[in-house]
Amino acid sequence: MSRIPPSLLYLTIYNPTLQPELLDPDNEDAEEQAHILFYTAREHAVSRDRMLRQVGLAKALVNFSEMFNAGVPCENVHSQGRRMIMFSPEPNFWVHACYEVAKTPRPTPSSNKSKDTKGKSKAKEKEKEKEQQQSARNVLYDYHDGSVHDIALRTHFERGYEDFRLLHGTFSSVLSGQGQQALELQLERFFTVWAWKWDSEDDNFATHLGVPLHPLHAVLTPLLDKFASTLPDELMTFGLIPPYVVPTGTPKYPLALVRYILARIPPPPTPVPHKKSSGYVEPGPPPAQAGPINTTATTSDQRSTANEGGFAMPIPMPTMPAMPKVNFSLDMKNVKWDWPTYLTFGKGGGTTKTASPIPPSPSTSTMPVSLAAVVDPPQNPQTPEIGDGLRPPAVRRETLDVDTASLLEAISTESMGSYTRAASPAPSALSKSSQLGESGTQSALDTGGNVSPIDRGNSPDGVPDITPDNVHPPTSLPTIDVATRPPRSFLAATVHLADPSDVHTTQRKRVLHLTVLGQQGECTMAIVMDVEHTLDLARLADDTVALIRSMEELVMDQAQKKDQQLPSAAKILQPKDKYIISTNEYTSSSAAGFTSRSEHLYNGQQLLRSGMDVLEVFSRGQNPQHWHIAKRGLGATSDGRPLEGEVFMEVARKETTLTDVDNELAGVVRRFVEQA
């Protein structure tokens, strides 16, 4: 049967030292209820008694555990189908959550009784239905104990508190500065959304270890340190190349800020067709050589080509074969249809009868019909007979009624179709209506868009000549090179960072971040400063863009050098060993990435952090037979500086022995220490 994934049952935040404003002697639970600052549950309606029992159980577990080990309260409680977690992010404030592990319903036992005969009474039928309903209520489940891990669960809720503190400050500061009602309101707005948007099965083992470092952070960090040296000492900076981070040599900011800026990076702009309503300028009178053009009437073909983006361009339509007038006394077998030579039909499958060639006319030329009428207008246009029932007399066959502005815009555009994000090999020729003049420059900076330069050709007024050589078949709209767009301006945000002298107090800071889209993707630089600090943002933006360009060139050079090193065939076919190294909440993983969800890694991490002085854990699964290694401590650098961290590795080769795995682990640690 289907497996039910793990889910949150309830989450609460309470403070046992709070007292009600007005103590009601008739209400015995008023004091206990005043302790609860926030509560949310999977069930929409939860009684007050049940809420108080859940919070009271958490208090009792914490107090009971402190009786045996003072100062070390209870953190986790396991049952067959649930996991309970309690931790105190601040003095007297507690976060308590209950998670239900994954479960699978057991199949109901099939009934061995024979089918009842048709003469069975209705009472027996009702009794059988009641038994089926009762068995549906008492469904038994098989619980998956390894679907929820204590360390990953605790890390997730600790990050939730850090995100709240980054945006609003600590619980104590909000309670003392704005009051209990304001704190309850902020907790309700933040944690109600945060608690139910997380799916534990979407994360892998590397998610809860930290933010991944860029693979080339060893060569990118010196560039960032050089840029940081030009800024005042109180400013902090770091770089982001999603999903990686490029920290400075001595990072002084919390990782919650890095995750916050990663979530604020705007997505790349999607090129859209330029509409007439934004900066459209009507062109002047049409050229004299364009012939008679009626701007008040359009054909049905032209009306069908007008799209929602504001384009009203006449797209040339293929010439349909002319059909003679229908006469009811006409013998249909002897009618000569005016089919072109390429639309001939034969009586047999192998022989065809070729029709007589038709002399070309202006309407059947290779040039589009709308352009042919403008370039070379006929001297004696044929006018269809009035009242023939086919077309209105105002519509002519050779000279179509077109919109002058739309015609010029269609001619000056290289292609028609859908915009693409790929960069065009040559600058696209855009119409006057899509150019950005002096008034449009600021809007391009604000939106981050870019318009390719216009190809004005040899015409003095900037409009290309209307000649057959310049006419191209409509294929696709001109592409926009988003890689050469002008840099965006700084985006600002206000955050609360912990005071170095007291971790339970925060200071308001301002964060400026700028994102530039290059050939290797997006790159963001963030600068943290005091709220009252002022900087020359224009000059700072230029320096930031220059730094991003330098980092991009360095990344491209390293990528080219890596491409020149061709691996051997045996190395390509051999399964890749995956590893991840965690140091100071930053992670460095193998080139193939680390996306394992193995329970062996979670169990190894729990043993390393159990306080039993465990340094290495080796384990091997049954199906598949992969090795899993966990190691604490990375040794020391060449200058004697110790490196604290953890290494987790997964080896997928069946023939590997314990000695081979140990050698692979030593090689990974040695290469990491050399780069540190």
UniProtKB/TrEMBL annotation:
Residues of the CCZ1/INTU/HSP4 first Longin domain: 10-166
Biased composition regions of type Low complexity, renumbered to the chain: 422-434
Biased composition annotated in UniProt, kind: Polar residues: 292-307, 435-445
Biased composition range(s): Basic and acidic residues: 113-132
Pfam families per record: Intu_longin_1 (PF19031)
Family matches, as InterPro entries: Ccz1, CCZ1/INTU/HSP4_longin_1
Region (Disordered), start-end ranges: 105-135, 270-308, 375-394, 417-483
CC terms in the record's Gene Ontology section: Mon1-Ccz1 complex
A GO biological process held by the record: vesicle-mediated transport
Family: Belongs to the CCZ1 family.
Protein known as: CCZ1/INTU/HSP4 first Longin domain-containing protein
